[in-house]
Structures are given as structure tokens and as C-alpha cells.
Design goal:
Order of helices and strands: EEHHHEHEHEEHEHHHEEH
CATH architecture: 3-Layer(aba) Sandwich
Shape: globular
Radius of gyration: 17 Å
Largest sheet: 7 strands, mixed
CATH superfamily: Vaccinia Virus protein VP39
Number of strands: 9
Number of domains: 1
Distance between the termini: 28 Å
Structural class: alpha/beta
Strand order of the largest sheet: 5-4-3-6-7-9-8
Bound molecules: S-adenosylmethionine
Strand content: 15-25%
Length: 249
């Protein structure tokens, strides 16, 4: 079990309650989500996302699932690279907001990371940006991602992570005191942004996340820190069938 299981903010809740509360958070913030991202990160989330997409080796023959794709920032950039992209997210509000504010339309599917509506070994690549933190169980979501990817398929994850010293105390102060106030002023949802901060603080650090990905069965797991570890890109490959047979010998 990952550290995020059955917690919502400071509360101990059941998995079902956590799922419902997270669903409510994104329903409440959807209309101001993109604006708030720009405020909170001083626009740097756009750079992180651009770097993330640069790492994705997207081919025109690829089907890519952008899980927890929300308003579609990542999916739109992947589409520009020529891939066939599907956004999978449980929040209709987030996906609708993305469709309203962009002329480039996306294929959206209502789905959760814990139960993906795709056949096993059917997808070339799966991306997830600032989404895996919201899963009821990171391990269950990773197992599901592993299931739907084809052997040789690739997984890319962009998420907040553990900031390096000496930046860490300043970053923590900013998160604890400024973000909830910005959330109140800009998004008018202080509690939703309180959840955001707590979920970042509880999220596994770079090495723990790497271990979770390896435990799900992935190989070639590596990561790249962005902005001193404020965000981190994890990349991994589902072993080709021949590789996994060799491992089992
Ligand atoms: C912080 S937003 C990220 C959106 C987008 N990927 C981005 O980078 O801007 C997190 C997204 O995760 C989605 N989400 C929450 N719980 C989820 C779950 N169990 N499975 C898949 N997506 C989930 C939310 O609806 C929301 O759209």
C-alpha cells in the first residue's frame, strides 16, 4: 500500500470516501483549474509539461492514453506530435472545461486509473501528469497501467516530488501558507487547494516512486528531476515477453 491510501487531508477515510472527495475537489476547481495552475507555479507548469512531452517518444502509429488528463494540456501536445491520443479521466467537469477553452478537440473517456476500460496489452504508451497522486492506491493504478500496456510499451509519469535542500524549507512554507490563500482568492476553493498540498506532502519521493513502479513489473525505470525536484518525470518500460520469460527462467 502506498502512503496515500485511505487518507484525505488529515482525515482517515475509506477508499470509497477518498475517491468521492477527490472527485468533488476536481468538480469544484474545474472552471479555474488552468488559471490557478498558472498562478501557483508562476507559469512553470507549462515548462514542465513541455519537457515531459519531449520525453515521450510519440509515433503516428501509437495509441497513447493520457490518464488523469483533465483539461487536456498533455494530450493536445502529444496530438501535435502525430499520435492518436485518448484522455481518460473520471471528471467530466475537467474534460468539458478543456473542450470549452480550446479549439483543438480531444477524444475523452470517463475512466479511473484503478479500472481502465481497455483490453490487456492493447496500448503503446500511457502518460499521466499530476494525476497519480489522486489515485486511491498508487500500486493498484500502476498494476492496471502495466496490464493495458503492450509488451515493450512505455509509461511516463510527471508528478510533484521531493524538493532538494536548501530550497525545501522555502518551498514547504510557500505550499503551506501561500497556496491555500491563492486557492481562496483565485479559485475560491481553499479546501481543495489544502488537499492539493497535503497530497503532495504525502506522495512518495523519487526513489520510493521508482520502487513502486518496479514492483508493478516495469523495467528500465528511471527518473529526471525538474526544478530541483519540485516535479519529477518517471519513465519505465513494460518488459517485452521474451524479457519477462528470461527473468522467469
Ligand atoms: C491535477 S489534475 C491533472 C490534470 C492534467 N493531467 C494536467 O497535468 O494538468 C488531476 C486529474 O486527476 C483526475 N483524477 C482524480 N482521480 C482519478 C482517478 N482515480 N483516476 C484517474 N484520474 C483521476 C482528476 O479528475 C483531474 O483531472
Amino acid at each position: 500500500m502506498s502512503r496515500l491510501d485511505n487518507t484525505f487531508g488529515q482525515q482517515q477515510v475509506t477508499s470509497q470516501q477518498r475517491e468521492q472527495k477527490i472527485r468533488r475537489v476536481f468538480k469544484l476547481v474545474a472552471s479555474r483549474y488552468d488559471l490557478m495552475n498558472d498562478f501557483m507555479s508562476f507559469g512553470t507548469h507549462r515548462i514542465w509539461k513541455r519537457v515531459f512531452v519531449q520525453h515521450v517518444d510519440a509515433k503516428s502509429t501509437d495509441i497513447i492514453i493520457d490518464l488523469a488528463g483533465g483539461t487536456g494540456d498533455i494530450a493536445r501536445q502529444l496530438k501535435q506530435k502525430g499520435a492518436y491520443v485518448v484522455v481518460a479521466d473520471p471528471s467530466m467537469e475537467m474534460m468539458t472545461e478543456g473542450q470549452k477553452s480550446h479549439t483543438e478537440k480531444l477524444l475523452n473517456i470517463a475512466a479511473t486509473g484503478e479500472q481502465l476500460p481497455f483490453a490487456s496489452a492493447s496500448i503503446e504508451k500511457l502518460t499521466i501528469s499530476f494525476g497519480i497522486r489522486n489515485m486511491t492506491s498508487i500500486s493498484d493504478a500502476l498494476a492496471e497501467i502495466f496490464r493495458v500496456l503492450k509488451p515493450g510499451g512505455q509509461f511516463y509519469c510527471l508528478e510533484f516530488s521531493k524538493v532538494m535542500m536548501p530550497l525545501r524549507p522555502f518551498y514547504n512554507l510557500y505550499n503551506r501558507y501561500i497556496i491555500p490563500r491563492l486557492g481562496a482568492m483565485v479559485a475560491r476553493q481553499p479546501e481543495a487547494y489544502q488537499y492539493l498540498i497535503e497530497s503532495i506532502e504525502r506522495f512518495p519521493d523519487q526513489k520510493e516512486m521508482k520502487q513502486l513502479i518496479e514492483q508493478a513489473g516495469f523495467s528500465q525505470v528511471h527518473y529526471r528531476n525538474l526544478f530541483f525536484g519540485i516535479a519529477c518525470i518517471h519513465m519505465a518500460t513494460k518488459p517485452a515477453e521474451s524479457d519477462s520469460k528470461q527473468q522467469n527462467v
